[in-house]
Specification:
With 473 residues, the protein is an alpha/beta fold. Helices cover 37% and strands 21% of the residues. Helix 10 crosses helix 13.
Length: 473
């Protein structure tokens, strides 16, 4: 029997030529096709796109052949395409869903398989479980139509998704003030799908867009992985200072996440960026609507929700929880600690490109540098400090979980523990309103320890205690 395939926080990921093989991609695609046929989508169209990782375009074509073999029509992107653009194409083309071949921010050894529904957003956990159950044990059960035949029968059509997405962005926001502002913007696309997009959207005016790491290179030089956090963005932060840029914007491998640095070369962490984007929509643009956040992101959002009279909904980690909640509540913004943010008026999917444009618009409208925006935010909600440690682990996961549950610490980092939330992982609530979270990655054998606190000098002590509780130190 072939190896079981499990969908984690955001789809299935594996090591290329290890478990991530053409046969296993085809098995995944058959499970997705069977699920969609069961849902009544016989003959419907599906978008398939991919990133710039090794062989991604060929894995995408293999998936397309399986969908066509099951009588489904396929709209295949004509090149590497950002995840948010793929998601928007689902809606614009009235497709029933999508397959996206990408491992997002994983190391260069990996590739992945994401699925989306008719909204362009993540499929809810119960749907993913049904897809998993329908993945055949053997490749012999997979139906395939060769690409040449599918093209001849017009079951498989290649298309350029860029024009529709660009038109859509221009409806969401007036880009001309950003073009005219005379900013110097450094963009690090991390050898991924974000290459060329900010230049295409914002070029032609006084604002200068400078891109680095904007070619295809699947080994991702100058970084451990295309994840927009230190140390992966250290080159970009140094370059920001060298060039005298006003801001650094960083998109991850599939451009659905955003990282940022200020004009001084200081990293703006994901919690700060999420709070800034929420403040921008609520205060600067005067919009109102619910906020959806995962339990691993900032409590600054709760304070902003109270200030502006909007509800804040908290979910488990992953857009498979965030996207359905955004759709259910017509949320103004949704996001997570990993740097993924989604917005009302767009699709319920992370969009690193739109998030970057909104951050630039905030700078222009308030005439502030990024460091000044952080100062403004902290004046509103108080200073908050965050950090995270990731550690690979071996051994029995259940034993580690039991160790954490049994720890029952009275204090963490010198702060009294006031509660424990086990919605997704183990979130210890602290007396200052902060928290420490221990959870297992949904995509790789990694444990993450996170904290947010109002006391800067406690951050590292809290993380050390978290590592000890998890048995990692």
């Amino acid at each position: 029997m072939a190896r079981d395939i499990k969908f984690g926080t955001d789809g299935w990921r594996g090591v290329i030529a290890g478990d991530y093989t053409f046969d296993n991609v085809r098995r995944c695609a058959q499970g997705f096709a069977s699920y969609m046929l069961q849902q009544g989508h016989a003959g419907d169209a599906f978008v398939i796109g991919h990133d710039m990782r090794f062989h991604s375009e060929n894995f995408a074509l293999a998936a397309a052949e399986v969908l066509c073999g099951n009588g489904l029509r396929v709209l295949l992107t004509d090149g590497a395409t950002p995840t948010p653009v793929i998601a928007f194409s689902v809606v614009r083309k009235s497709a029933a869903g999508a397959i996206n071949i990408t491992a997002s921010h994983n190391p260069p050894t990996d590739n992945g398989f994401k699925v989306r529904d008719h909204t362009g957003g993540a499929i809810a956990p119960e749907g993913l479980q049904q897809i998993e159950a329908m993945i055949p044990d053997d490749i012999s059960s997979v139906k395939v139509m060769p690409a040449e035949e599918a093209i001849e029968r017009q079951m498989l059509v290649r298309f350029d998704p860029a024009p529709d997405y660009i038109e859509h962005i221009n409806k969401l926001i007036d880009l001309q003030p950003i073009r005219d502002a005379g900013l110097k913007v450094l963009v690090d696309t991390m050898w991924g799908n974000g290459a060329g997009w900010f230049t295409r959207l914002l070029g032609g005016g006084k604002t200068e867009i400078i891109e680095i790491h904007n070619q295809r290179n699947p080994i991702f030089p100058e970084m451990k992985r295309p994840e927009p956090i230190p140390p992966n963005i250290d080159v970009g932060l140094r370059k920001t200072v060298e060039l005298g840029a006003d801001v650094l914007l960083v998109t991850d491998g599939d451009a659905d996440r955003l990282g940022a640095g200020d004009e001084k070369g200081t990293f703006l962490n994901q919690l700060q960026v999420y709070a800034l984007l929420a403040y921008y929509l609520l205060e600067v643009r005067g919009l109102r609507g619910p906020i959806v956040k995962t339990l691993s992101t900032t409590s600054m959002l709760n304070k902003l929700g109270a200030m502006y009279g909007v509800p804040v909904y908290e979910t488990g980690v992953g857009f498979k929880y965030v996207a359905p909640k955004m759709t259910e509540t017509d949320a103004l913004i949704g996001g997570e600690e990993s740097g993924g943010y989604a917005f009302r008026g767009n699709v319920p999917e992370r969009d690193g490109i739109l998030a970057g444009i909104y951050l630039l618009d905030m700078m222009v409208r308030l005439n502030m540098k990024p460091s000044q925006l952080i100062d403004l935010l902290f004046q509103k909600v108080g200073a908050h400090y965050y950090d995270r440690v990731d550690r690979r682990f071996t051994g029995n996961r259940e034993e580690r979980q039991q160790r954490i549950i049994s720890a029952k610490p009275e204090t963490i980092g010198g702060l009294k523990v006031t509660g424990l939330d086990t919605t997704d992982g183990y979130k210890f609530l602290l007396e200052d309103g902060g928290w420490m979270l221990i959870r297992f990655s949904g995509t790789e054998p990694v444990m993450r320890v996170y904290t947010e606190t109002t006391q800067k000098d406690r951050v590292q002590a809290i993380l050390r205690d978290g590592l000890r509780i998890a048995g990692l130190e």
